[in-house]
Design brief:
The structure holds two protein chains of two kinds.
Chain A (H helix, E strand, L loop, with lengths): L1 H24 L10 H12 L5 H9 L1 H21 L6 E3 L10 H23 L8 H17 L3 H7 L5 H21 L22 H29 L1 E3 L4
Antiparallel strand pairs in A: 1-2
Chain B lengths: L2 H23 L5 H25 L5 E4 L15 E4 L1 H20 L10 H18 L3 H19 L6 H32 L4 H8 L6 H18 L6 H9 L2 H26 L4 H23 L4 H21 L3 H29 L16 H18 L5 H12 L5 H24 L32 H19 L1 H15 L1 H9 L16 H24 L4 H21 L4 H24 L1
The chains are: A mainly alpha, B mainly alpha.
Chain lengths: ~240, ~600
């Protein structure tokens, strides 16, 4: 069976490689000035006073895809929570005493916590102006809390990390994303349409719903990553095999 | 704004919002409230779908989200949702099956903090988004949403290692399909500068297809074929169905896997009008899927695997019909099959709750308890099995009859044979389990075949009686399958939906706003005397075949041996290919993708 597997895999890989060559050699050349999508997307971003064109594409022109991706994240969190729920043959153990951590590491972890939180908030709140946005900023915010784990303090992490609230914040973030989309429908402009004043290009309060959706996504993504990492860490650290029921 | 501008986005995001609601409030709300909210969401989705069908009978409706309607001749930057009767009808199907699954699980899972309900609602949203998306990348996003939820639902019973195994295999194979589709979308985008399906098609239309266009489309179609469980991408489906909770199987078999066929038809009609070789390849893939599914269905003893292979066989028939003349018939067949198959899965779920097993041999005669509820379940199961064989007036029979009328003569034996053989296998298992027909097969240890013993229960403890909702859900779904066959409206809309789905030109015209092309109104799918006669005959054939198999247990073993010696090794070889080893499945996936790609590209590119 394993030989058949290798033969099939080899033939398939060679065949797909040939197809890939056929596909890519026939493509238009890279690096020319002709780029109809760029021209259209940049103009559309400018029309809604969104300085960061990538954010405009993600949170204005193609908001629906981002809504779908945010929902995938929500689904993944619910899925992981479901699959890692305590099984009948598992029980909670007190965590092993943490291995000794250098005082310098400990200090660095605690010192970087507020800095990283600040950076995360900055990335979220300026996503419509500069590279960044709700997804990236949300991940930074969530990782900030996990510096405490690196600093050697799992109990402190459990204390700081909003484990009780993260599982609620994540669906709340996704739900608010949908609500912002529906608000456009309610004011008659269409689903996920711009319904806030766009402001001046480059101003901190500009780009209308892009800023709002970035904040909502930041909350959702941050909570999602906290929940995900929290589940995995918990499974690794405090869940052990127990007696079969 | 018109109806579709409101309803299309609401159909996708409404279930997401409800899912968020039950996930947030789930820990405080009592279980019946959560059940009611989720059920209301599913029913609401079905109503939404019906309104979408009604709004698009005259022509496809397009809504550009966020107000990004492209001016005439300009490059689009936004996302369009495109609704036609086929898309609307599939939304109805998603809603109805989700409602059936939720109704059945009313007293089923000990669902912790409403996560099961949240997952089912998110799953419905994913399927709805995939159906309504008029954009290749949006299709992929919702394909992945469907997947992310489905892997978790398949592996829901975490105490069983094989459950996680089945979910993992499902996840690996479907993710690979999604990667291939993503590569295809990338190539198509690089070739055309577009992500909107209609604009991709418009850019490619009229020109001789080139390498990127053909390979890009083939890769996208392979992704959807993985979801459709077409051979040789079908391996995950039986494994996932065998381990998934039965209400989840209803959604997997009834609509999720068939949506793969929908995606194939949609993309090839709109974006690949100039690739004639594609049609022949898809017909061959469909026919092989149907035959292989039927053969493997017969040899199963795990009832859920048996039903899963029957689904694979029927999906093969849908693919054959959709690509070779049966455009007006296959959606009716799909709807009728969904109701019947859903009812069968739920009845098997009832067996699991009552008797703690889904093994045909282990359960021999188990259903003869004399309990009235078990009698009702037995009757429902037999009726559903006969409906699967094509018994009038059920929708599966109507769709099958129409398919036999429409496809070329050479394919009729495939349609008839597949439906007879799969229905006979389903009926054989039901007669054994519910009525104890035939001698009890010897309980031999079978290393080659997955048994259905030791399956984890989905209820807390063994149920002494089937509950009302556990019988009402399959009865209602079976009634819905009968409605599909009886209500002339459905035959009319089904034919229209199928023909319009195959008409990529009208779709492109609607999205580009270049004026609607009015297609001819197709002949409605309805019962004709020949269809009724073949329906009755195939049903009778399935009954006879099932009884023959059951009685053959009485034939002395030495008389049976020649038959077994002749076909045994072939079937055993086929079964051994379905090893459960994810590496094998991946190898087949790559091999199949390459073969399909070369078979399409070689004649097209010359």
């Amino acid at each position: 069976m394993s030989r058949l597997r290798l033969v099939l895999f080899g033939l398939g890989a060679v065949g797909l490689a040939v197809l890939w060559v056929v596909a890519t050699t026939g493509l238009p050349p890279v690096g020319t000035d002709v780029h109809p999508y760029r021209d259209a997307a940049v103009a559309a971003a400018a029309a809604h006073a969104t300085a960061n064109v990538v954010s405009s594409i993600n949170f204005d022109q193609r908001t629906f895809d981002t809504l779908g991706e945010e929902t995938i994240l929500l689904a993944s969190v619910v899925a992981v929570t479901t699959l890692l729920r305590p099984a009948d043959d598992e029980r909670v153990e007190p965590p092993d005493p943490p291995p000794a951590v250098l005082p310098a590491t400990r200090l660095a972890g605690w010192a970087l916590l507020p800095v990283t939180l600040l950076v995360g908030a900055d990335v979220v709140l300026h996503g419509h102006l500069t590279p960044g946005g709700g997804f990236q900023g949300g991940v930074v915010l969530a990782t900030a809390l996990h510096l405490l784990y690196l600093a050697g303090s799992f109990p402190a992490l459990q204390w700081v990390r909003p484990t009780r609230w993260a599982p609620l914040l994540e669906p709340a973030g996704s739900g608010l994303f949908v609500v912002v989309g529906l608000a456009g429908l309610v004011v008659g402009a269409g689903f996920t349409a711009e319904f806030l004043p766009p402001g001046v290009l480059g101003a901190p309060l500009s780009s209308g719903t892009v800023l709002l959706l970035n904040v909502v996504a930041g909350v959702g993504v941050g909570a999602a990553v906290v929940s995900l990492l929290g589940q995995f860490l918990r499974q690794e650290i405090v869940i052990g095999p127990g007696a079969a029921p | 704004m018109n109806t579709v501008d409101v309803l299309a986005p609401v159909a996708v995001t409404g279930p997401v919002l409800l899912a968020c609601l039950v996930l947030v409030a789930g820990r405080w709300l009592p279980r019946p409230v959560i059940d009611a909210v989720a059920l209301a969401g599913a029913v609401g989705l079905a109503v939404c779908g019906a309104l979408l069908v009604h709004a698009t009978l005259a022509g496809d409706a397009v809504t550009w989200l966020g107000g990004w309607t492209p001016p005439p001749g300009a490059h689009p930057v936004g996302i369009a949702l495109v609704v036609d009767p086929a898309a609307g009808g599939l939304v109805v199907l998603v809603g109805v099956l989700a409602a059936g699954a939720l109704l059945f699980s009313w007293r089923y899972f000990a669902s912790v903090e409403a996560r099961f309900h949240g997952l089912v609602l998110l799953f419905s949203a994913g399927m709805t988004g995939f159906v309504l998306a008029g954009d290749l990348f949006t299709m992929l996003v919702f394909f992945e949403l469907m997947g992310a939820v489905a892997y978790a639902l398949a592996a829901y019973k975490i105490e069983e290692p094989r459950s996680l195994q089945g979910g993992l295999t499902f996840g690996v194979v479907n993710s690979l399909g999604a990667y291939l589709a993503l590569c295809g979308i990338g190539v198509l985008y690089a070739r055309t500068g577009q992500l909107s399906l209609a604009y991709v098609g418009e850019t490619l239309a009229g020109a001789r297809p080139d390498g990127p266009a053909v390979v890009g489309i083939v890769l996208v179609l392979v992704g959807w074929l993985v979801k459709a469980a077409a051979v040789p991408f079908h391996f995950w489906l039986a494994d996932a169905h065998a381990v998934a909770p039965t209400p989840v199987c209803v959604l997997f078999s009834g609509v999720m896997a068939p949506l793969g066929v929908y995606g194939v038809v949609r993309v090839s009609a709109v974006a690949a009008p100039e690739v004639p070789a594609l049609r022949g390849v898809l017909v061959v893939v469909g026919a092989v899927t149907a035959v292989l599914g039927a053969v493997l269905c017969v040899v199963q003893r795990n009832l859920k695997r048996l039903l899963a292979y029957s689904t694979i066989a029927h999906i093969g028939l849908f693919l054959v019909g959709a690509t070779d003349g049966g455009a007006r018939a296959w959606l009716v067949y799909l709807a009728g099959h969904a109701g019947v198959k859903a009812a069968l899965f739920l009845l098997v779920g009832g067996l699991l709750a009552r008797f703690g097993s889904v093994d045909e041999i282990d359960l021999h005669g188990a259903g003869r308890t004399g309990d009235p509820a078990d009698r009702v379940a037995a009757a429902l199961y037999v009726v559903a099995a006969l409906a699967l064989a094509g018994l009038p007036p059920f929708g599966a029979g109507l769709g099958k009859a129409a398919l036999e009328e429409s496809v070329p003569g050479a394919l009729v034996p495939v349609v008839v044979g597949t439906s007879v053989v799969t229905a006979a296998a389903v009926l054989r298992a039901g007669l054994r389990v519910f009525y104890g027909v035939g001698p009890r097969p010897e309980r031999r240890v079978d290393l080659e075949r997955t048994s259905g013993e030791g399956e984890e229960r989905e209820t807390t403890g063994r149920l002494r009686h089937a509950t009302a909702t556990m019988l009402a859900a399959p009865a209602l779904l079976l009634a819905a399958a009968a409605v599909v066959g009886v209500l002339p409206l459905i035959g009319r809309v089904g034919a229209l939906a199928g023909e319009r789905l195959a008409d990529g030109g009208a779709y492109r015209a609607a999205v580009l706003g270049t004026g609607a092309v009015a297609g001819a109104v197709p002949e409605p799918v309805s019962w004709h005397p020949p269809g009724v006669v073949t329906g009755v005959l195939t049903t009778a054939a399935a009954v006879v075949l099932a009884l023959l198999v059951l009685v053959s247990g009485r034939v002395p073993a030495r008389r049976r041996r020649p038959v077994r010696r002749a076909i045994g090794p072939v079937v055993l070889g086929l079964e051994r290919l379905h090893s459960g080893h994810v590496g094998d499945y991946v190898a087949w996936l790559l091999f199949g993708a390459a073969v399909i790609g070369i078979a399409v590209a070689a004649p097209t590119l010359g």
